[in-house]
Design a protein that fits this description.
The chain is α/β, with parallel strands linked by helices and 273 residues long.
């Protein structure tokens, strides 16, 4: 299917749903989905639900609030703390399953309370290429994924976002801060704050595509390959060292493979619990 055919399929799917609660993070996918749902169904039949937690960076939450207002869609904010989910903080390979299950149950309860027909998430076709245990939760709870169902890839969504003037069209892919930890490494509020402080520095210094990964005493930085020269500039290197060490890291390492989605899933076995 070409892009216009996929987009029309998305609009047809949304029309059939009638009224929706969108699990809304403010990322590329959920923002495009929210706008499409608003355009097709009308703002009065769409709610953006955002769950705040220690794993959700304050910057991303503030962006979600701004975007929901910009799109004219009601946003409901629910307090959630994945660290309290049994087993979550131990960071098993199925961590994402437990997190998404709680989020989708919150969304379903709110949809039922307010009389909305369906809960939607922003999964797209490319998500099937990575280890995504959160998809299992979506399947079990019968959460609809219209972008995936329409065959839209991440690049399709960026292209359609550009076409409609969304500021998120070229935004860095979003993932919760828990994804910065190797499976089996315990996740704590303090460690999440370490990562948040370091990534805030990277963002405020105009790095576009990056992650800071937690490896006990070591912070491993991934940046897009075209940003490597800037990060090893002597002045920037010294500033990064100062900030990261002040955040509590003893060592700071640069990953020469550069940024890549799901690098913590490299070697993960989907059958593990």
């Amino acid at each position: 299917m070409n892009l216009d055919t996929k987009f029309q399929k998305l609009k047809d799917l949304l029309t059939e749903l009638g009224s929706v609660v969108v699990a809304f993070s403010g990322g590329v996918d959920s923002t495009f989905l929210l706008q499409a749902a608003r355009d097709v169904l009308g703002a009065e039949r769409v709610i953006a639900l955002t769950a705040t937690s220690p794993t959700y960076p304050s910057y991303e939450f503030n962006e979600s609030v701004r975007l929901a207002k910009e799109l004219g869609v009601q946003q409901i904010v629910i307090d959630s703390n994945e660290l309290l989910i049994p087993g979550f903080a131990d960071n098993p390979p199925l961590r994402c399953y437990h997190c998404k299950k709680e989020l989708f149950e919150i969304c379903q309860n709110k949809a039922k309370e307010l009389g909305y027909a369906e809960v939607l998430d922003g999964s797209n076709l490319d998500d099937l290429d990575d280890y995504r245990p959160g998809r299992q939760a979506a399947t079990e709870l019968q959460i609809r994924s219209p972008l995936l169902e329409s065959g839209l890839t991440k690049e399709d969504i960026r292209a359609l976002s550009r076409r409609s003037g969304l500021s998120t069209a070229d935004k860095q892919p979003f993932a919760c801060l828990a994804s910065r930890f190797p499976y089996g490494t315990r996740i704590t509020a303090e460690r999440l704050q370490q990562i948040d402080l370091c990534e805030t520095f990277m963002r405020e210094n105009n790095f576009h595509t990056f992650r800071v990964r937690y490896h006990d005493e070591t912070a491993r930085i991934e940046v897009a390959l075209d940003e490597l020269p800037r990060i090893i500039d002597d002045n920037m290197r010294k500033r990064i060292l100062a900030v990261f060490k002040d955040a509590g890291f003893t060592y700071v390492a640069l990953d020469l493979q550069g940024y890549r989605t799901g690098s913590m899933n490299e070697g993960a076995a989907p059958s593990e619990s």
